[in-house]
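Appendix B. Extra example for self-study. Work through it before the problem class; the solution is given directly after the inputs so you can check yourself.
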Amino acid sequence: MKSLIKEFSKGITVLNPTFGLILGLCPTLAVSTSLFNAVGMGVAATFVLVFSNLIISALRNFIPARIRLPSYIVIIATFVTVCELGIKAYLPGLSKSLGIFIPLIVVNCIIMARAEAFASRNRILPSIFDGLGMGVGFTLGIAIIAFIRELLGSGSIAGIGLLKSNEFILVMILAPGALLTMGLLIALSRLMGLTKR
Amino acid sequence: MKETLRFGFILGIICIVAAGLLAGVDILTKPKIIAQEKLEEGISLKAIFPSAHHFDEVRDGREVIYYKALDNDGKFIGVAFKASGKGYAGEIKTLVGMLSEGRITAIKIMSQNETPGLGSRIADTNFTARFKEKSDLSGVEAITGATISSRAVIDSVKKKAEEIRLRVKNER
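Solution. Structure tokens for the complete assembly:
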């Protein structure tokens, strides 16, 4: 049990995908313009991470090493498509604002990295916890960035306007704002020793 | 050779299982997705053409060219159509309502990928309201700092409106 908790918590702290491993930056940078989008993206990626880790771990002795990458891609793409159809059917608003970034979870490197580095070498239960921890860590990372960018860039939190003005720091919701916020947060997390140097 | 076959076989099995799962999910979600799209379309049409009672699709083959807007008695009062133009970052799709004499009732931006905070302001009511009650769109002002995006909307709506006007005239 103790080791399971460790597998879960390492994704949030030391090996946090956003601040520790620095993986999966494409959605992190692109979708963190609002808190709502960020959390939606995080939950969708967590779903895919948990299920792809589960299946890849269960099939680790069945998939030969030489064809592991195409097999992983098929498995990951399947869950991403399931996720995409589900969001389209039940959360049309989220599907509209995330657009192309949902299908692009397929190429999110955290998922591939966890499949290759963890799920393919470990038992099913630790793999599920690893996926869950990584997913939560990713969600937290992207949500923190989105919180800062949305507040400074459009003066609102999760779509609720706090300040009535048109003069916000526009650059914060553009691409440079994403890079600046992320860079400063990575530096901060290393300085505080939350993630590995 | 033997190994290649074995690899192909294993990958094949994975693909077949994946395809089966996806087919199942598709069957489950498809009616829901289509219903969502219909619902959204209905709401948007109502929003740009509040005086219409219902809309009839006019198709050319499988594609919907425009919608006829009909009032309570089924009388033809105008049309609704989609215009699309190239903006600063990709296609901008606009839904337009037009009275039979050629005046625009309202427009609504359906999809756009313009720069957030700049070009994306074309979707604000502040901009879309500039089209209301206009029949000549050259008078519509662009947004400061978002000229390309604004012009894309204005030009695409203008072009498509003329096209639809001609079409409706010929059909009547």
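Self-check: Chain B has one domain: 49-171. If your reasoning did not lead you there, revisit section 3.
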